[in-house]
Amino acid sequence: MDDVIKIARTLSKSVGKEKIRDLSRVNSLRSTWHITSEWIMIIGMVWICQSFWHPALYLFAVIFIGARMQGLIGIIHDGAHYLMYKNKFLSDVVVNIFASWPLFFSMMKYRVHHMPHHKYVNSRRDPDFVLFSVNEDFDFPKSKKELIFMFMRDLSGISIIQSIYFYFQKKYFQFQYGKQKKYYDDSQPLGYWISKYVYYTLVISAIVFFFGWKVFLLYWLIPFGTWFQFIFRLRTIAEHYAMPSDDLLIGTRNVFPNIVEKMLLVPENLNYHLAHHLFPSVPLHNLPKLHKVLMEDEMYKGSSHNLHSYADVIKECLTTGFTDVNLAHNH
Asked: Which pTM was predicted?
């Protein structure tokens, strides 16, 4: 944590505290548009595919809707940092209803373990690092065969079973943290659970009543269990894994996707992960501006780990681990 704070303070002083402060302002209208636009695209894709049914179009719909789910993860992420709306209660309600609960996700649970991830990033006190350290999928480098097999498990739906297993394993690691338990206490009041299950009952009942199970299966469960699992893993790897070092600047990536990757792999600027770790007060929609500002600093420009596509991330999965000393690319 001290290293992160030290680097952030140095960068803030270098590029100007006022610039960072301006970029950190919460924009409620912008947040509402991000939520609305993702759902417009989801609903629009379902309508198009239902109206002009073709197997190839449906395959694209699975990919497109799965990518929109990744976009909703970005909204959950900003919600966990209280960067969606100035009113924290309103922020939690909106993010839960329109992003977290549709993905069978708990933003509150995510928040309580995501904060120590920032505080202790890439260390044995980082809950993500500890959790994934016992998962061989996150041991790098890998052979092409191993990488293909891993991604095929995601795309085939097998990994969703593994995700359930790791949910319970995460609970075990939270229990193991002892004195740090305050960082992992994900208990919620009874009203939260009542609201959540009333929500699922009403939404699923409405979908089935008006559209049938087929629509829910084809356009939500299948994209969630296949393409979304694949791109969620790819993004997770791109953020902190297959790296030359666990040092913050070269052990956390920014990736600059082309237009296809941005639409179908990592929307909502989730690719600017190093910039986010340095200044987590900046909402996702301002991360491109933040990166541009940080590039004015010679230390950040010379040391930050920046790749030009997710194909480059996959290449590093084949060649790079913490024992390597490769120099990172710069953007």
From this structure: 0.88
